[in-house]
Amino acid sequence: MDIRAENFVKFFYSSNFFHGTRQATGVLLPVFVMAGLFNQPMIGVALATGALCPAIIDQVGGTKRSRLNEMLGGIVLGQLSGLLTGLASPYPALLWLVVSAQVFFYSMLSVYGRRGGLIGFGCLLQMMLSMHTPLSVDQALMHTSYTAMGGIFYILYSTSISHLFKLREERQTLSAALYATSSYVSTRADFYDTHKNLDDSYRRLIPQMIAMTEQHQSARDVVLRNLPRSNDAGDQQRILLWNVFIDMIALLDTMVASQTDYATLRARFQDHDILLFMRDTLFKISRTLNRTAYSLARNKPVDYRNSVKAELRAMEYELLQLKQEGIQKTEPETYLLLVQIVRRLRNASRFVDRIADNLRGSRLEPVDSLKRDQSLRRFITPQAITLDPFKRNLNLQSSIFRYALRTTFVVTLVLLISTVVSLVYGHSELVRTFTSHSYWIILTVLIIMRPGFALTRQRTIGRLAGTLVGCLVTIALFNLTSNPFILIAIMIPAMVLGNAFVLTNYPLSSALMTVYILIAFHFLSPGNLLIIGERALDTLAGCVLALACASILPWWEKQRIMPLAQDAIAAAHDYIQAVQEYINSVHADPEHKVPSADNERYVQAQLCRKNMHSAFGAFADSFYRMMNEPKSKQIHIKELNTILVQTDAVASQIAAIAPVLAGLDKIPPNMQQTLSNVSDLLNKDAQSITEAPSQIETEGQYGSLVFPLKQMQQAALRIRQQATNIGLL
């Protein structure tokens, strides 16, 4: 299949497209029904307005239950917002007060994360669509009743679609996690390519790891909340999802554990074929994962087969050649490192084959890598919402509080400017035309303003570029045709695709939504091309105001990156402590070893590993955002980058040695001393540091642990040094 055609089909079967289609049809359906069947287009618009709030909340991510609760909460708050704004609309002073208070309150909902921000934005949209026309009490109540019915309709529609396609949504979520894993594996392949800069490869890998961690958590939430209950044919789909998820996590463990000193490896084997075989193996594994994810999203058997047997055999031959040249005696650690990499690549290939085998169409048995009981609930993202985060953030030390104040100021400023312009130039027909939709400026401000400067600037550029492109496309479209059927045929896909791309390509989403909105206004006011210029000018004004006011009570990443770095180090320390406790529990009773799935210490170690990945992702994300801010606002770049890279190295080596240590009869004294040294180096509260041994046991089965233990100890030492230099430890 042509790669472009494959990408098109991949997008068509993605969760983004599925949700975008559901949002667009749920919002537009009331308009077409009321206008086409009952000749009541304005009532249809009111119903669609009410459907917008839950549609905005109904985004990719989260569980069905959590989304339902969020949409219900959004409807209640949204209708209250629309009613208050509608009642205050005839009184300018009261309207200012009501709007400003709501902007602050709903902006503060971002303390609950992305989902809270969506609820706040949906309610603010309800507010804006109720403020541009003064309403009497009866009109406000009538408008609120229609918008409430529109919101309820959307929830019923969305819930019905989710129920009908529930397994499709779950497959799409897991498919997205597989795609992210494929991209991560492909990027890891670059580390074995001596022609590619190692630092650049690291810079590309970290964002891939962050995206993969987020997708894995979404998949974990979906799979663990919908565990297979039996082995009958009706539950085969859930068994498939469970098995694929377990093998995907096992593959990730293998990939993370294969982290090594690539600089040393490249220097030693720069012109050696063994690195090329390692690179090609990862590329093939990535390709197989990609096609497996593609088949899973389509609910089709895997139609692609790939094998890395040739590469594995070639690496084994190269190892034999190196052994004959004497590397096992002259460089034993390097030789054992190569052996470990080959073994892990073989294991990775085995996990990928098992993932693909689950989609061959045969009857499946559930993989019991972990007990499928209530202990797994600890791995799920908590959904409870309390008032504590809201209250804790009501101070100037909070980035969300500053963001809420800044947004409120900008919105109030827009209201002031539009009022003054209307009073001074209200006699001008042109001015009245260009200020009739001044709430577009407020909408632009609310969309692009973010707590951090870097995100605000990024959204500003994307919004402005997308809107201008959308305006130009719409002008060209109106010059080509005025056929309403053609315009509707373009408007609906524009809205669907605009919603589908909002998370992955914001400029394109903005352009498509601009086309949709301008065509919609064309039907309400045919022949009025000035609205295109108004849209462009209002967006430009909103972008300029938002960017200009981004320096009011600013929040720079340097104000929170230090605690995030500290959290990442602490999470790595907790992980190694949990691993040691697990190993000790295994060694405590060697005659009656408890299976990992039944060992509480093992489950706790896995939980600490998940928390470590989350903490590392938050730290890395903040670091890369800081790099996009002005240089005067950046701090400790060299030290934090070192901590970032070395924390990843420590975590990788912990994952690599844990199963090997657990399989030993006992841990030799010097190895135990090394582990204690690493733990102390990562412990902020350590009163003294256990001295690292001068040598580590190398005889027999201990030899394979020497290199990862040394690398882990050196990485922990560098973390300690850099963290001490900048006051973290």
TrEMBL record:
<feature type="domain" description="Integral membrane bound transporter">
    <location>
        <begin position="420"/>
        <end position="549"/>
    </location>
</feature>
<feature type="transmembrane region" description="Helical">
    <location>
        <begin position="515"/>
        <end position="533"/>
    </location>
</feature>
<dbReference type="Pfam" id="PF13515">
    <property type="entry name" value="FUSC_2"/>
</dbReference>
<dbReference type="GO" id="GO:0016020">
    <property type="term" value="C:membrane"/>
</dbReference>
<dbReference type="Pfam" id="PF12805">
    <property type="entry name" value="FUSC-like"/>
</dbReference>
<feature type="transmembrane region" description="Helical">
    <location>
        <begin position="27"/>
        <end position="56"/>
    </location>
</feature>
<feature type="domain" description="Integral membrane protein YccS N-terminal">
    <location>
        <begin position="80"/>
        <end position="348"/>
    </location>
</feature>
<feature type="transmembrane region" description="Helical">
    <location>
        <begin position="437"/>
        <end position="453"/>
    </location>
</feature>
<dbReference type="InterPro" id="IPR049453">
    <property type="entry name" value="Memb_transporter_dom"/>
</dbReference>
<dbReference type="InterPro" id="IPR032692">
    <property type="entry name" value="YccS_N"/>
</dbReference>
<keyword id="KW-0472">Membrane</keyword>
<feature type="transmembrane region" description="Helical">
    <location>
        <begin position="118"/>
        <end position="137"/>
    </location>
</feature>
<protein>
    <submittedName>
        <fullName>Membrane protein</fullName>
    </submittedName>
</protein>
<feature type="transmembrane region" description="Helical">
    <location>
        <begin position="403"/>
        <end position="425"/>
    </location>
</feature>
<keyword id="KW-0812">Transmembrane</keyword>
<feature type="transmembrane region" description="Helical">
    <location>
        <begin position="143"/>
        <end position="165"/>
    </location>
</feature>
<feature type="transmembrane region" description="Helical">
    <location>
        <begin position="539"/>
        <end position="556"/>
    </location>
</feature>
<keyword id="KW-1133">Transmembrane helix</keyword>
<feature type="transmembrane region" description="Helical">
    <location>
        <begin position="68"/>
        <end position="87"/>
    </location>
</feature>
